[in-house]
């Protein structure tokens, strides 16, 4: 996507051909900083510290982390150590495990001397596959926006509400939930995005608003609890969110607060769509509420807030009284019954086991084996 007219990705190989460049998302929206990753531990830290985040980008970063590990030491012991180190960084996003399994499965049969080249090649393929998938999601989601646009009066815009950041910063490029929005905008459709701030890390206010603004997409940041009110007053035409894991039966795990948006959408007859690449589907899980591990993050994400002062300094301040206990669940699960459709690279699908297995037989069969 574009940052002030310049094409940009969230992750890339540096000119030296082996180190990895990423946008440090912990510095946004006030500072645009590129970080260079040179070894396994730095890759793991980037994921754990949320310098990179979003299920598809986590997977791509982990793949490059494996490549960096093989560059340092191509042995079986190094391969296993890299896998263990990276898979422990974030427990919820299934793309992490998928990418690591892809890498380990392809590298294990090779002699150590051949693993580095193969690792970089496969990591690059995973990144390119993500871009192609998201472009397809954009095309299929565009049809939904065009259908709504056809019901509007001339000059009226299509209003999309989204939660958290499922934009190009959460993937390699284009994003999942934002891919239909960017596609519509680039084709000249009048589209406007309601951007949930998404406490406690404010990925909507800090990241989604930043990338939409720099690409030129009209948007408005709203407090997390505003979406239901907007839906009641006909100000939201559809909701599109991303996801970190989808069960075989269509339950959706996404950033905390997504479930409440789905309930509000259901109560007000607003279509609720989830955009996802197929590696996000976990065919080994049926019940999202009971089976998906929900990451609990540090209390400081809730008790502290970072922002820019009037004189340009970046400061972190405490907003919760000392001594007050904090619980910080990172995700919640939206049952399939509340999901209008899943926007995938192979079309808009009903959240149903048979439908998903039929659309992605290669992934379903690989799990079944």
Percent strand: 15-25%
- Average pLDDT: 95
Rg from Cα: 20 Å
The low-confidence parts are none
**How would a crystallographer describe the biggest sheet?**
7 strands, mixed
Number of β-strand runs: 18
Number of helices: 13
What share of residues is helical? 40-55%
Morphology call: globular
- Oligomeric state, counting identical vs distinct chains: single chain
SSE-based structural type: alpha/beta
What distance lies between the first and last C-alpha atoms, to the nearest angstrom? 38 Å
Q: Biggest sheet, strands in spatial order?
A: 8-7-6-9-12-17-18
Task: Write up this protein.
The protein is α/β, with parallel strands linked by helices and 369 residues long. Helices cover 41% and strands 18% of the residues. The protein has a seven-stranded mixed beta sheet with strand order 8-7-6-9-12-17-18, with helices on both faces. The protein is globular, with a radius of gyration of 20 Å.
Q: What attributes does this structure have?
A:
369 residues, alpha/beta, 7-stranded mixed sheet, 4-stranded mixed sheet
Write the topology of this structure.
Elements lengths: L1 E2 L2 E2 L3 E3 L6 E4 L10 E4 L2 H9 L6 H18 L3 H12 L6 H14 L4 H38 L8 E5 L16 H8 L4 E6 L6 H13 L3 E4 L4 H6 L5 E4 L3 E3 L4 E4 L2 H11 L3 E4 L5 E2 L5 H4 L8 H4 E5 L5 E5 L12 E4 L6 E4 L2 E3 L3 H7 L1 H8 L1
Parallel strand pairs: 6-7, 6-9, 7-8, 9-12, 10-13, 12-17
Antiparallel strand pairs: 1-2, 3-4, 4-5, 10-11, 11-16, 14-15, 17-18
């Amino acid at each position: 996507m574009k940052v002030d007219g310049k094409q940009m990705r969230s992750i890339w190989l540096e000119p030296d051909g082996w180190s990895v460049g990423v946008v440090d998302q912990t510095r946004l929206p006030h500072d645009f900083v590129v970080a260079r990753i040179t070894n396994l531990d730095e890759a793991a830290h980037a994921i754990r510290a949320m310098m990179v985040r979003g299920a598809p980008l986590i997977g791509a970063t982990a793949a490059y982390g494996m490549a960096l590990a093989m560059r340092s030491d191509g042995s079986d012991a190094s391969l296993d150590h890299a896998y263990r180190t990276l898979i422990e960084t974030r427990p919820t996003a299934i793309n992490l495990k998928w990418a690591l399994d892809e890498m380990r499965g392809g590298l294990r049969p090779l002699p150590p001397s051949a693993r580095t080249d193969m690792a970089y090649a496969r990591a690059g393929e995973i990144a390119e596959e993500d871009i192609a998938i998201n472009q397809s999601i954009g095309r299929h989601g565009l049809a939904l926006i065009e259908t709504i646009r056809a019901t509007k009066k001339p000059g009226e815009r299509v209003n999309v509400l989204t939660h958290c950041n499922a934009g190009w910063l959460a993937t390699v490029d284009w994003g999942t939930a934002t891919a239909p929005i960017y596609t519509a905008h680039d084709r000249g459709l009048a589209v406007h995005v309601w951007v949930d701030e998404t406490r406690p890390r404010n990925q909507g206010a800090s990241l989604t608003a930043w990338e939409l603004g720099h690409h030129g997409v009209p948007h408005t940041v709203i407090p997390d609890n505003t979406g239901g009110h907007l839906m009641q007053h006909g100000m939201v035409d559809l909701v599109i969110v991303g996801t970190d894991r989808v069960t075989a039966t269509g339950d959706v795990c996404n950033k905390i607060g997504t479930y409440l948006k789905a309930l509000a959408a259901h109560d007000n007859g607003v279509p609720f769509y989830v955009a996802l690449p197929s590696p996000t589907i976990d065919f080994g899980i049926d019940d999202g509420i009971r089976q998906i591990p929900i990451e609990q993050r540090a209390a400081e994400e809730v008790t502290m807030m970072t922002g820019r002062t009037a004189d340009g300094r970046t400061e972190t301040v405490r907003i919760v009284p000392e001594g007050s206990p904090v619980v910080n669940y990172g995700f919640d699960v939206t049952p399939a019954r509340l999901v209008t459709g899943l926007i995938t690279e192979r079309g808009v699908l009903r959240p149903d086991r048979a439908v998903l297995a039929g659309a992605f037989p290669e992934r379903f069969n690989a799990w079944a084996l």
